[in-house]
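Incident review: delayed structure delivery

Summary: a single-chain prediction request sat in the queue longer than the usual turnaround. Root cause was a stuck worker, restarted by the on-call engineer. No data loss occurred. The affected request and its eventual output are reproduced below so the record is complete for anyone auditing the incident later.

Affected input:
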Amino acid sequence: MEEKQFSGILNGAVPGEPVKKDENSRRGNWGNQIEFVLTSVGYAVGLGNVWRFPYLCYRNGGGAFMFPYFIMLVFCGIPLFFLELSFGQFTSLGCLGVWKVSPMFKGVGYGMMVVSTYIGIYYNVVICIAFYYFFMSMTNLLPWTYCNNPWNTPDCAGVMGTPRANATFANVSAVVSGMTEIVNRTKRTSPSEEYWRNYVLNISDGIGNFGEVRLPILGCLAVSWVVVFLCLIRGVKSSGKVVYFTATFPYVVLTILFIRGITLEGAVSGIKYYLTPQWEKILDAKVWGDAASQIFYSLGCAWGGLITMASYNKFHNNCFRDSIIISVTNCATSVYAGFVIFSILGFMANHLGVDVSEVADHGPGLAFVAYPEALTLLPISPLWSLLFFFMLILLGLGTQFCLLETLVTAVVDEIGTDWIIKNKTYVTLGVAIIGFLLGVPLTTRAGIYWLLLMDNYAASFSLVVISCIMCICIMYVYGHKNYFKDVEMMLGFPPPIFFRICWKYVSPFIITFILFFTVIQYKPITYNDYVYPNWSLIIGFAMALSSVICIPIYALFKIAVSEGSTFLERLKNSVKPDPDWGPALQEHRKGRYATTGPESVEVCPLKEDLKDEGKEKLKEKEDEIGLTIPGSNGSTLNPSPSA
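Output delivered after worker restart:
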């Protein structure tokens, strides 16, 4: 008996409910709930937690930034996370199928697919560069340690001096102290920066000058896509096993690097720089905007991945509990990573005799320039480099698994035939091959320009628009009372009142604030001293709009093909829930989902809530006395006595 109870808890059953075998044999489920939690943690915890949050924290007031950050987590991050998980879990469908709730809004699902496609293309290129650095770290001497390489320029000045100096850990300070004049040059470039720009990227002079493909990077890109495909070869059944390693080992590496970092001279000054609160910045709207944006983007909201991963849960899984665990874990990881990053940067700043702000960086500059340079100061530096880049690879793969699965699941659910479900592996292979081919231009000499363009435009304000429209559709078109009842049917308890208020009012307001903040704070993208030409910015905006434009285009299409003699009739019919909306398995289709007629679930405008409640009670009474219910096509639907 105890073993059965434990099994029920492991599989996410609501406490007090009998454990049911609700495995979706046609579509598949997670092996157990731990796999879902680990996969979602791997999806949410990505490269941004390591290379973006620590930088935002020190730039926006250090420890003072934590206050707005956690406020936004509570009022926006966790509620949106719970909304998307419950949305996907209730219907057991991916980011396209869930819009049976209101078919006119299916364009939101297509927008999610477009965003996931863009992110999946450039994200895997970043992973492949981490693979390249990982392979290059398998040596006795890291290639970015000294300035005596063919790719170095006269402006190069390394923290380790030259190979002739016996630059061991014991005399690093002496070497560095003799280089003060060089370090203070305005044109000083580090060997790690020149290795990154002149050797790894062999960067061209502009975004329009592609040059040749960097074959080592192309090879690593192929390796990256092969790894992703093999891990998803059996869908969630295989990826669910892989995440036991990919989602947990980064924490082992972070802990090893943290312990090593805090034992270094100058580490405390780096951590102080990271955490020292500047309370006056709390009154700055930009700090709150950065906090809201970081929460929103780091949790992966509106990508479609959360809906997709939750769709493989069992129907009665407690996704409320999961949303809190995963969201808090994601944010705690960001804070923890800040200690790891700034302890090492503080050590390097101490030896260079400069302020921490002069060595701090974010994005690729932190991952492939600043941090690798700091690692050259450590004894057995190749070991620490291997660990660091292996951690980046695992963090990236965790997110990439979900991005690819989101696209594959959307295609399979949309076609929905037995053949496509049985041959899902071929769909995965096809998407992986297309992703690889689309990523090839990013391995050219101009690739970094395009990668940063996609990162800044393709997945920016469009995500905010998608998330806002999703909230409006669920809360105000489908009806918040309908959705609250759906969640109660699924979990065994209604959503807490705090989440109901956030879903209806607070979260949409914060999302709108993020959108306005993004527009107001917009600045044209630059890369170091390179200013992007106007034509490339137009392409960037086109990528951003390509996901949002799906929403009105599909809405107009759906209205045009809906039944009705007038525009208002077509509009009303296009927003009505599809007859198949609801739980996927027949055993869970109870109450108003017991029949398959389209009248079983209606859209509930706020003004008619009381009237609809009265109709629902009347229907329930009719069900009890066994009356027939007319269907939309004139047929009669007899409710099951067991319903």
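Verification: The first strand starts at residue 526 and ends at 527.
Action items: add queue-age alerting; document worker restart procedure.
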